[in-house]
Amino acid sequence: MTDAWSAAAAVPDPEVPCVTVADLGILRWVRMEDGVAVAGVTPTYSGCPATLAIEMAIEVALRDAGFEARIERVISPAWTTDWITDAGREKLRAYGIAPPEGAVGKMALFGETEVTCPRCGSRDTIRISEFGSTACKAQYQCRACSEPFDYFKCI
């Protein structure tokens, strides 16, 4: 069982390859059912274009590890950025993406969040676009070091 979890958990996110599906918390569980490794996967949001690619990559990883495999899409409860692990948040920061700040709340919907620059650590930042390299990220710029960066929005 741990071998199946390890194989599935090591799959990188195709849009943000510095983190794995386990780091993001979208791999919910892996369990054996009648000799088949079944992985529960929760999409980050219903319109995420990477969902099918992620599910296929997890299935391939399980098969490559010697398991018959099946993926179950788990839509309830809905994924939240609160599920990103501490290790995942640090990997995002090291990659140059500011991880979500604080817990999910209504004010996050209105951009009422102070964002820390992942490069220099300054909180003197400004949102320059609601959308960054993907729909789940916003584009910010640091006023201290002048560098632009993506911020992984609280969802």
From TrEMBL:
The protein, known as: 1,2-phenylacetyl-CoA epoxidase subunit PaaD
Annotated MIP18 family-like domain residues: 9-64
Organism: Mesobacterium hydrothermale
Domain PaaD zinc beta ribbon per the UniProt entry, residue ranges: 109-153
Tree of life domain: Bacteria
Record PANTHER family: 1,2-PHENYLACETYL-COA EPOXIDASE, SUBUNIT D-RELATED, FE-S PROTEIN MATURATION AUXILIARY FACTOR YITW
InterPro entries: Fe-S_Maturation_MIP18 (IPR052339), FSCA_dom_sf (IPR034904), MIP18-like (IPR002744), PaaD-like (IPR011883), Zn_ribbon_PaaD (IPR056572)
SUPFAM superfamilies given in the database record: Fe-S cluster assembly (FSCA) domain-like
